[in-house]
Amino acid sequence: MNDDVFLKKGFQISTDKNLLDIEVIYKYLNEDSYWAQGIPSERLTRAIENSLCFGVYSQAHLAGFARVITDKATFAYICDVFILPQFRGVGLSKWLIQTIVEHPELQGLRRWSLATSDAHGLYSQFGFSSITKPESWMEIFKPYQLIKKEEK
């Protein structure tokens, strides 16, 4: 992926959280994503504050987003990855993932992780594969609707 190709077309990727359009991110995640519908806006704001975030911009307008939850030493979890529909089909998702895995603060990690229902082809281009020992992994999963009920 050649950064110059996208830069010449007016795109850029930045980790500057001040540039993020939180309203656009919230709208997409809450209304259009399959993984974060129902997320409370305050919870998303806290998640962004505590993550390494990547914004994709077209002429200073948000075109895409991804968060990386990491200790910057051993582990990174990529999540909330999206490119807005009007910007799809030009390779921005590949550029975004390449930028993330090549980010200087994320080099030398022992493990990268992510979850996807429909983008295996994208992530496999960057070395991601199915978990080799799924029996070793455990989780507590609470959809946002259940969390809301518990908080009442």
Task: Describe the protein.
This protein has a five-stranded mixed sheet, sandwiched between helices. It has six helices and five strands, in the order αβααβββαβαα. It has a single domain (3-151), classed as 3-Layer(aba) Sandwich (Aminopeptidase). The mean pLDDT is 92. Strand 3 and strand 4 (75-83) form a beta hairpin. It has helices at 3-8, 22-32, 41-49, 92-101, 120-124, 144-151; strands at residues 11-14, 52-58, 61-70, 75-83, 111-114. The protein is globular and about 45 Å long.
Strand content: 15-25%
Helix content: 25-40%
**CATH class category:** Alpha Beta
Low-confidence stretches: none
Q: Radius of gyration over alpha carbons?
A: 16 Å
CATH superfamily: Gcn5-related N-acetyltransferase (GNAT)
Give a quick account of the main beta sheet: strands, pairing sense, barrel closure. Answer: 5 strands, mixed
Shape: globular
* CATH-defined topology: Aminopeptidase
Number of strands: 5
Strand sequence of the main sheet, in spatial order? 1-2-3-4-5
**Overall pLDDT, averaged?**
92
